[in-house]
Amino acid sequence: MSSASVSPKILIPFYSRTGTLQRLAEAVAEGARAAGAEVRLRRARELVGVDILSSVPGWKESADAMNAQYEAPTADDAVWADGIIFGTPTRFGAVSSELKAYIDGLGGLWAKGALNGKAGSVFAGSATMHGGNEVTSLSLYPVLAHLGLIIVPPGFADAVMFANAGTPYGASVVSGNPPAGPTDAELAVARFQGRRVTEVAKKLIA
């Protein structure tokens, strides 16, 4: 079977508070679908109570809207997938606790080697130019390795990577405060990443 004839299954588990990472995740999904993938977009859920959610203007409303649109990611989603692309806002240079909670729940699959050989990639977002996007993406690379995923970075494998957007480690968004991203260039990198992971996944499963 040639790689062109297979249809990879791509899981995109992400966390987004304001909707910025949601838009980047949707662009990743667009790129994956354009390359022939079947895609599951899944939003990780909050770990705090309603009192905390309600104390931050707009947080509960945004969470409710996204949760109505996207199911929560499950271990079964990871088993289903041929490639997994994790998305997270940066939290002090590291993955958000919401996405990390989902990852921590994959221990049973790790123990069985159930994710070995799948394609893996990451994307991230921050409010400021030096807010930690690169280090946050890189902080997830050891996670991908422990899960047995084959790490697929965007690299500089497409002209969109030279438009001062994204990183070679993963698509990214610098949203500003209040959030105003992603830009067209950031979305283009995200679409490329979705295509690239899908094309690699095709070769892995052909």
Report on this structure.
- This protein has one domain: Flavodoxin domain (Rossmann fold, 3-Layer(aba) Sandwich).
- Helix content is 43%, strand content 16%.
- The protein has 8 helices and 6 strands, in the order βαβαααβααβαββα.
- The N and C termini lie close together (6 Å).
- Strand 4, helix 7 and strand 5 form a beta-alpha-beta unit.
- It is globular and about 50 Å long.
- The model has no long low-confidence stretch (mean pLDDT 94).
- Strands 1, 2, 3, 4, 5 and 6 form a 6-stranded parallel β-sheet that branches.
- With 206 residues, it is of the alpha/beta class.
For the largest beta-sheet, the strand count, sense and barrel status come to: 6 strands, parallel
Count every helix, treating DSSP H or I runs of 4 or more residues as helices. 8
Specify the overall morphology: globular
Given the helix and strand composition, which structural class is it? alpha/beta
Based on CA atoms alone, the radius of gyration comes out at 16 Å
Task: Provide keyphrases for this structure.
206 residues; Rossmann fold; single chain
Please outline what is shown here.
The chain contains 8 helices and 6 strands. The chain is of the alpha/beta class and 206 residues long.
